[in-house]
Amino acid sequence: MTPRFEFDLIASWIPEGARVLDLGCGDGELLAGLEATRGVKGYGVEIDPDRVLAAVAHGVDVIQMDLESGLSAFEDDAFDFVILSQTLQAMRRSDLILREMLRVGHEGIVTFPNFGFWKHRLAILRGHMPVSESLPYEWFDTPNIHLCTVKDFEDLCVKVGAQILDERVLHEGKIVETLPNLLGSLGVFRFRRRG
């Protein structure tokens, strides 16, 4: 379906015909793939005008909007799934966007680079900010403003009232079972409002 391995994991969690909102949808690749393989109905949200055009070219219904201002354009429980793929770390208020995801969707899916990955820790020990496949920017040109570890995200879920339904940590396309916060470079979480 897609060259981004986490997209396949996300697709495995979404049933046929689900209503999906893809926040920070980029060029719309994920949502276009879900529409083609799962028959989902949904919208992408993106702020960058070039990416909005790319998403439209992929056949995705996309809304140009700044996620930092919330999701007031959407009603409560309007979607089955709300996805935030590798965008959390670029948000000023990660807690607020998670609360909004829980408000407008029955379930949320978030992916983010794991700052606890051992190579990132080693880079810090050597006195430098990490640059890797999952964090490809130098410290001076990065769009990432809030990096977190898998453990940090678990704690944030508790604070915003989210119940984690599934949690996977990946590295190079494989699920990391042993010491995932140390050996995994990408966190992938599925959650819903705590009952």
Tell me briefly what this model is:
By secondary structure, the chain is an alpha/beta fold. It has helices at 5-13, 29-38, 49-57, 94-104, 118-125, 150-160, 180-183; strands at 19-23, 41-46, 62-64, 79-85, 105-113, 162-171, 174-175, 186-193.
Strand content: 25-35%
Helix content: 25-40%
Low-confidence stretches: none
Oligomer kind: single chain
Radius of gyration: 16 Å
Structural class: alpha/beta
Care to count the β-strands?
8
Mean pLDDT: 95
* CA distance, first residue to last residue: 34 Å
Outline, from the CA principal axes?
Answer: globular
Strand order of the largest sheet: 3-2-1-4-5-8-6-7
What does the secondary structure layout of this molecule look like, with pairings?
Blueprint: H1 5-13, E1 19-23, H2 29-38, E2 41-46, H3 49-57, E3 62-64, E4 79-85, H4 94-104, E5 105-113, H5 118-125, H6 150-160, E6 162-171, E7 174-175, H7 180-183, E8 186-193
Parallel strand pairs: 1-2, 1-4, 2-3, 4-5
Antiparallel strand pairs: 5-8, 6-7, 6-8
Helix pairs in contact: 4-6
Describe this structure as you would to a colleague.
There is one protein chain. By secondary structure, the protein is of the alpha/beta class. It has 7 helices and 8 strands. Strand 6 and strand 7 form a beta hairpin. Helix 4 (94-104) crosses helix 6. The longest helix is centred in the middle third of the chain and has 11 residues, at 94-104. The N and C termini lie far apart (34 Å). 38% of the residues are buried. The mean pLDDT is 95.
